[in-house]
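User: I'm new to structure prediction. If I give you an amino acid sequence, what do you actually give back? Let's try with this one:
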Amino acid sequence: MLTGDFTETCFAAGAGPKPGLLLDALPVTDHARRMIRTCWDLGARPEFGGLRLRPWAHMLGFRGHFSTKSRAYSVKLGDLRGARSLHRAAQARERYGLPALGDATTLVLSHWRFAGIGHSPGEAVMAEHIRQRVQAARHIAAEREPE
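Assistant: Good question. You get back a string of structure tokens that encode the predicted 3D arrangement of the chain. For your 147 residues, that looks like this:
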């Protein structure tokens, strides 16, 4: 393990977090903190030098995108998002005491309120224009019909 201040050790090697940043002060879980520290420690060993773990300690040693978009990968991000969405919806239904959804269930979460009668002024203009076009089309069609 590291001895002394993690920041001093990082910058003595010429890589690592920003000056003044302490690993223990990072807003990460203890598990992530241990993995960062392990990457840093392993990166100092000659047998792991080719892995370049120290420059990638902040990514837990993985030198690439944090996730994959591969179609061949075992779990796709879209599948994870879908599963999370279903899980969160089930949690919300449970929290508010709502029934579980089945295939034939339609759950409406809203309240009816009176919105008014008739068209708004803009809608009235559009409706009148449509009425005039329909009337003109009927008049033209009636003139074309043989008697």
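You can read the tokens as a compact description of the fold. Here is one thing that stands out. Residues 86 and 92 are 10 Å apart (CA to CA).
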